[in-house]
Amino acid sequence: MSCEFKGSVERPAAGEIPEINRYFRAVGPKSSPLAAAKGKIMKRRQFLRAAGLGLATTAVAKPAIAQSMPELKWRLTSSFPKSLDTLYGGSEVFAKAVAEATDNKFQIQVFAAGEIVPGLAAADAVQSGSVELCHTASYYYFGKDPTFAFGTAVPFGLNARMQNSWWSFGGGAELMNEFYKKFNIYAIVSGNTGCQMGGWFRKEIREVADLQGLKFRIGGFAGTMLTKLGVVPQQIAAGDIYPALEKGTIDGAEWVGPYDDEKLGFQKIAPYYYYPGWWEGQAMGHYFLNLNKWNSLGPTYQSILRSAAALSNEWTLAKYDAVNPAALRRLLSGGTQLRAFSPAIMDACLKATLEVYAEVSAKNTDFKKVWESMLAFRNEQYLWWQVAEFTYDSYLIRTRTRV
User: Fold this and answer.
1) 27, 112, 114, 356: which has the fewest C-beta neighbours closer than 10 Å?
2) What is the Cα–Cα distance from 202 to 307, expressed in whole angstroms?
3) Coarse DSSP helix, strand, coil percentages of the chain, rounded to the nearest 5 percent
4) Residues 199-227: tens digit of each pLDDT
5) What whole-number distance in Å separates Cα of residue 197 and Cα of residue 73?
6) What CA dihedral angle connects 275, 194, 173 and 103, to 10 degrees?
7) What is the DSSP code string of 224-250?
8) In the Cβ-directed half-sphere of 302, how many Cα atoms lie within 13 Å?
9) pLDDT tens digits for 329-368?
10) 333 inside domain
11) What's the pLDDT score for residue 220?
């Protein structure tokens, strides 16, 4: 039985929403609201320059503070290539904000994946002190300890707003930075992708049996769950995914969503584009800082780094929300076939996920502590989301074409 979407985004209410493929093809490409958003970001940068330093409004105060600030030049290695201008671009937004807020006394030079450190070794370079900081996804390092996954995303976890809230107000930052201390790392949130897609496949995935033996590029902890369903997970850096897919080394791949996936060219090889990415209801990125370097900074510079990271966090998710719709239209008009994972596949994946959580929690106290915190937070959040957020969004999804 085909998994092709025939009714609605809301599965429980089939037929209420116009067909997704037909809608996106009908409306055609549209201009992005990104340009308007840039003006707002620039205004925030101007504010950051004043607020980040805690400058007084008088002309006299600025030189006194500036003179007390040492000149620093740090290197930041990214896990992402320059071609992914939103993920990599977040680092540039961050570095520029730090420079502007310190009158260029604190300069951070950004290097793309592979320029000085391989993309998946960024955290190792920070831990050893060979670079001061990196921009990466925590779940890339789940092989060291699966607790790393909670910093980015775990299957059937939080959405983007919930993750930010858990990190800031639910104890997430405290729990994770206590864990990261074991690796000589301090983490500051860098951005979020929002909910991701479920990946590109050469053939349709109609039933659970179709996952058996599938060689699938997937980042982070989710590969452990998929192994229970017969998938052979492959963790491959962004720049190496297309060649692996082209050569047939892998049968499918997931990355982020329409905008980035289009840039990487997966649609040229694998026509079936699945949703949702149940393993990434969101994906939070981080700046990992060498703990000794972080502790060596005074409170002013630490505050500036946090403020600059907050700017890149806002910028990254806002940009993805702005550019993904147009990218999805382009992909569908070019022949990409959108598919939903069937309820049977989703249920099998959830069952496998809960089994893994129980198994890992039984032998890893750090993992158990963070998972219990996140699970309680998620369930309490959905108590609220189902009342207002979900009903509001669902109604507008059904009625958006009336205007």
Assistant:
1) 27
2) 43
3) 55, 15, 35
4) 999 999 999 999 999 999 997 789 999 99
5) 38
6) 150
7) HHHHTTT-EEE---HHHHHHHHHHTS-
8) 12
9) 999 999 999 999 999 999 999 999 999 999 999 999 999 9
10) no
11) 75
CATH of the domain at 128: 3.40.190.170
131 in a structural domain: yes
**Longest Cα separation, the chain:** 73
Question: Quick check: is 209 in a domain?
Answer: no
Place of tokens 């996804």: 137
Q: Is residue 180 part of a domain?
A: yes
Gap between the Cα atoms of 355 and 363, Å rounded: 13
Question: How confident is the model over 28-71, as pLDDT tens digits?
Answer: 544 444 444 445 444 555 544 544 444 444 344 454 455 678 99
In Å, how far from its chain's centre is CA 397?
Answer: 24
- DSSP class per residue in 293-342: HHHHS-HHHHHHHHHHHHHHHHHHHHHHHHHHHHHHHHHHHTT-EEEE--
Number of domains in the chain: 1
Helices 34-51, 299-333: crossing angle, 10 deg rounding:
180
CA distance 203 to 207: 12
Distance of CA 376 to the CA centre of its chain: 22
